[in-house]
Amino acid sequence: MRYLDNIAVASFAIASLPVVADVPVEKLIEQLNEQSGEQPTRFIICARCHTPITHFEHRIEVQHSHHHRFTNPNGLVFNIGCFAQALGCMIVGDPTQTFSWFPGYNWQYAFCEGCGEHLGWYYQTSGSNFFYGLIAEKLIATSQK
Ligand SMILES: [Zn+2]
């Protein structure tokens, strides 16, 4: 029942917002569940529009850590969490290695599928390895019952 409780939390978050453009929440949750092969316990949602982005079970370590702190060429500091999957993101732009924080990985932008907020980056090797590096401040964890 915990899974259903969390759907309720995520759905309530969506329903409580004044305007959200046609977000396929149920579809996303279904996909997240299938991907993990287990019942997600805590969703991670967009801080701005509350679209489900990923969940705790998708947290991974890249270069020996889940959390990374990076400074971009403009001096902006980002706290990044690494996730194996983030179906609430849309991937935008051409893959590039320019200023890549993860050697060997090309990056593209990852935006919220619900509101278009920049949530982080999608990283992929020339092979099939990929992950998402998402900005901690742009995300909210749903509460666990
Ligand atoms: Zn959003």
Summarize, please.
The protein has 145 residues and is an alpha+beta fold. 18% of the residues lie in helices and 35% in strands. Residues 46, 48-49, 51, 112, 114-115, 117 line the site of zinc ion (ZN).
Quick tags:
alpha+beta, six-stranded antiparallel β-sheet, three-stranded antiparallel β-sheet, 2 helices, globular, disordered N terminus
Kindly describe this structure.
The chain is α+β, with helices and mostly antiparallel strands. Helices cover 18% and strands 35% of the residues. The strands form 2 sheets. The protein has a 6-stranded antiparallel β-sheet with strand order 3-4-8-7-6-5, with no helix packed on it. A 3-stranded antiparallel β-sheet has the order 2-1-9. β1 (43-46) and β2 (52-55) form a beta hairpin. The relative contact order is 0.21. The site of zinc ion has 8 residues, from loops.
Task: Summarize the helices and strands and which ones pair or pack.
Layout: H1 2-15, H2 25-36, E1 43-46, E2 52-55, E3 67-71, E4 77-83, E5 89-96, E6 106-112, E7 118-124, E8 130-135, E9 139-141
Antiparallel strand pairs: 1-2, 1-9, 3-4, 4-8, 5-6, 6-7, 7-8
Bound molecules: zinc ion.
Zinc ion binds next to loops.
> What hetero molecules are bound to the protein chains?
zinc ion
Q: How would you spell out the order of helices and strands?
A: HHEEEEEEEEE
Treating each run of at least 4 consecutive H or I residues as one helix, how many helices? 2
Query: Segments where pLDDT lies below 50 for 5+ residues?
Result: 1-23
Q: Would you identify the CATH H-level superfamily?
A: Peptide methionine sulfoxide reductase
- Overall, the morphology is globular
Mean pLDDT rating: 81
The number of distinct structural domains comes to: 1
CATH class: Mainly Beta
Radius of gyration: 15 Å
| End-to-end C-alpha gap | 10 Å
Which CATH architecture?
Beta Complex
Strand order within the widest sheet? 3-4-8-7-6-5
Task: Report the strand count.
Answer: 9
Helix content: 10-25%
- Largest beta-sheet characterization: 6 strands, antiparallel
**Which percent range describes the beta-strand content?**
35-45%
CATH topology: Metal Binding Protein, Guanine Nucleotide Exchange Factor, Chain A
Structural class label: alpha+beta
